[in-house]
Amino acid sequence: MADRITPRKEDFSQWYADIIQHAKLADQAPVRGCLVLRPNGYALWEVVQGELNKKFKETGHQNAYFPMFIPESFLNLEKDHVEGFAPQCAVVTHGGGKKLEEALIIRPTSETIINSMYSKWVKSYRDLPVLINQWANVCRWEMRTRPFLRTMEFLWQEGHTCHETEDEARKETLKMLDIYLGFVRDVFAIPVIPGRKTESEKFAGAEETYCLEAMMQDKKALQAATSHYFGQRFAKVFDIKFQDRNSQMQYVYQTSWGISWRILGALIMTHSDDQGLVLPPKAAPIPVVIVPILQKNKDNSEVLNVCNKMKEELMPHHRVLLDDRLEHSPGYKFNEYELTGIPLRIEVGPRDLANGICVLARRDGKKSQVKLSELIVRVNEELSDLQKSLYNAAYERLKNNTHLENSFSTFKEKIESESGFYQLHWCGSRACEDKVKDETKATIRCIPFAQIRETGKCIVCEKESTGRVIFAKNY
Amino acid sequence: MADRITPRKEDFSQWYADIIQHAKLADQAPVRGCLVLRPNGYALWEVVQGELNKKFKETGHQNAYFPMFIPESFLNLEKDHVEGFAPQCAVVTHGGGKKLEEALIIRPTSETIINSMYSKWVKSYRDLPVLINQWANVCRWEMRTRPFLRTMEFLWQEGHTCHETEDEARKETLKMLDIYLGFVRDVFAIPVIPGRKTESEKFAGAEETYCLEAMMQDKKALQAATSHYFGQRFAKVFDIKFQDRNSQMQYVYQTSWGISWRILGALIMTHSDDQGLVLPPKAAPIPVVIVPILQKNKDNSEVLNVCNKMKEELMPHHRVLLDDRLEHSPGYKFNEYELTGIPLRIEVGPRDLANGICVLARRDGKKSQVKLSELIVRVNEELSDLQKSLYNAAYERLKNNTHLENSFSTFKEKIESESGFYQLHWCGSRACEDKVKDETKATIRCIPFAQIRETGKCIVCEKESTGRVIFAKNY
Questions:
Q1: Which of A162, A447, B395, B414 is deepest in the core (most CB within 10 A)?
Q2: A339 assigned to some structural domain
Q3: Contact B90 A88 (CB under 8 A)
Q4: Which residue, A381, A412, A434, sits at the end of a domain?
Q5: Residue B293 lies in a domain
Q6: What is the pLDDT of residues A97-156, one digit of tens each?
Q7: Cβ A158 vs Cβ A110: under 8 Å
């Protein structure tokens, strides 16, 4: 392990790796490209699970679990789907000491296995909608991996729904994108651009893919979540039919939507600094730590009593850690909680007590003295202010690094020297999209819902365009 | 799907399969031996997760996640472990379209992969204890599978801990067994016999295996949970060493413990009846359903108003479902909730309202009229009484079907005609244990903590024995 955290300016990608190690979020596994999610990292994943499960259930979804093994033949049923996923599959050829008659794929995503079950379960409009989600591990064979962002095995949730009508399914697709948006914005304090993917960036097998695009501190884009509308494509392949209200047989309309542990990568790269991880209070498994200033070989009972009382007072509002270890100095502890990103530190020493005060130190560096009698109010204020302030800083960055450009050559120069979101006119053709990618590595991240609609000329071919789309380099 | 549930007396194992289908708990997957856990089943698994996570965290454990892929060479490192698990492994030989240099095993259990990480993380006694748990899927290639009890892939949790001393590790092993016991007894209302496994029934690689043995309605035994003490066996293989308080290098002492979705099988086979699933109130995702007696083409607003008020009143205490669907008759609904095991049904019709009463119908058949003004108190009473009564019935069965036997021939006759727990004297030899198994299919389920300690003669060889052990046929 590196002794210090590499500064962002020196090497952003090393900084990212250092944060993950120093904050003990994850570690490299013995198998190439696999990640071990350590307790500090898993606690963040539990925040994702807890918040999203609440929203999913409020909107009528239920959790279930489908097998990780998919018969190889299933994957081949939908043409686009197999083209997209077959090259990334891990294949089980032997089981129980014998060669299998049909090889099994480890799910890279579960449309095929889940739809094969839906075709058994859905018979009538009374069985609809089917609103099912699963939390699972999936496997995609990646050549170049990066912690959280691109790993061979990863954790995610995938929702798969069936509906009576196209309209209902389309609404579901957007509703779920909106749930992700609320979570990412309000809990993880990450501003995002919601939009639609182009044909070439769509999920393999989808009619439409919607996404949330975030901007990291190095100004590269990161896709935070996706939601897909399938129409009846998989329904026809897997024969998911129902008797409708007029006794006619119809195919269902479907969606799927997912968020993976890459959102933890986005969290890290949005807020953290050269001192370590920075967690927005609502994303923090433990938002408050109390560090008593203890003195070795002295009676610390007065300070400890006050700290215990503080903890009791705060616990109904926030999860609080009281670090009363004697073997470590306050300085050691300050450093530890800076590394692990705890949003608010409360320092209490004997001198403070005499004055009826304590010190609140925010992870963003702001310090203040507060009266003990005002502790709860002030802790709530600081946490809520820190949450906003982290969001605002990220939002400013997103805004300040989103550029309008009309000339291809200027754009190429600019993106060469500085990443960012570039709002460019585009004619809609695959050829122009590919040309930009080949020459700049930037791709169309999305056609934003809040698209700048104006007549202009495609940045490549100069044909007419009716609105700008967002190009950026991405993770 | 069978139209009706096969009665237990007719065919217990078909009854079990029918309950699972009719209560929509699970379904057969397209891959042999794999199970789809449907929403009704997953909701029960969420009860297991929620209750155990609370207990695990209260006792200082943290969740983490380790990869499902284990290099084949890892498994070979511990002799007993590989002998136990190698024949059951699923093997990934190809990834990303290429043959792998080293095949990967899908975890049948995670001792090897987790210990390889612990050897990196543990350096000093200050890093101890390591108290980590993971919720994960694992894969064991089984030839004869049975829903929940024996499936190729299954969901479970596995805790893996490291300790400074043997004493601490042994205490942890028993502490976790006790947490399982509390959960299984108090939430799932399943009485169990805690005890120790014999050499031949131990977990592959463990020094000691402790277990909880439950009795199903067909009087066969089911192992509900296990907890293993490893001593330093894996620590030596994976070189997990720490500098102790005297600056000496020592190997850690380890434990692991797990419970899988087979506990859902135990829940089903302990309480359910020929009408469907029976859930103890604390195990039920929704313990109370309100069924208004609605009349088609009439104004039902009065009844519905009262039902909505009831729901509001009850919700702070219990999760309540109000089934106000007009398209289904009350009888249809009664049947549905009998199938799915909802512990308490509240029926409210216009005539009841006129009398200021409603009907409480317990899943075990007890019905009573209660005054609306006493609803909450009476609902709480009935739920708590039902919980106790289900436990007591299961406990009586366990007691009444546990027999003392001293003659091998009588025992063989008896167990041939009737399953049960047989308390037999045993000399401690593998040969006698195997002989009983060969001739009766019964195995030693455990040496109970509350062993009947008395001098006697081994039921097979008649050598001296100092106490009785429990023999039974098992799932």
A1: A162
A2: yes
A3: no
A4: A381
A5: yes
A6: 999 999 999 999 999 999 999 999 999 999 999 999 999 999 999 888 999 999 999 999
A7: yes
